[in-house]
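Is this the right way to post structure tokens for a design question? Let me know if I should format differently. Anyway, here goes:
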């Protein structure tokens, strides 16, 4: 795995952190969770920008969003007791399949 793809995966993890962190900010009225959430947003976008130097933008953005969506959905189930229904899990798996497919079938990166 190249450094660009590693940056993209880490960027996706920070996207999950800020997506879940927003819930804890209580509308950005709680200072500590708010600062942590905004910090995760900045790191996530910064790492995405680095990754997109050599990963095609369509692929990189879709993978970043996919990691964030799947991570936030799983985090919502674990942290907030959100639905664990079979159709919901099936949809999450479809997103995972799309992200894996984009990685497998993307153009080789330069890094």
């Amino acid at each position: 795995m190249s450094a660009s793809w590693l940056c993209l995966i880490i960027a996706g993890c920070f996207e999950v952190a800020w997506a879940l962190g927003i819930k804890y900010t209580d509308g950005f009225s709680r200072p500590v969770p708010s600062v942590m959430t905004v910090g995760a947003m900045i790191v996530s976008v910064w790492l995405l920008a680095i990754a997109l130097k050599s990963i095609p933008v369509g692929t990189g953005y879709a993978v970043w969003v996919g990691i964030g969506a799947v991570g936030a959905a799983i985090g919502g189930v674990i942290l907030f007791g959100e639905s664990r229904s079979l159709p919901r899990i099936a949809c999450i798996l479809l997103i995972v399949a799309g992200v894996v497919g984009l990685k497998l079938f993307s153009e080789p990166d330069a890094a």
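Format looks fine. Someone answered above. Worth noting: The chain has one domain: 3-105. Residues 3 and 44 are 15 Å apart (CA to CA).
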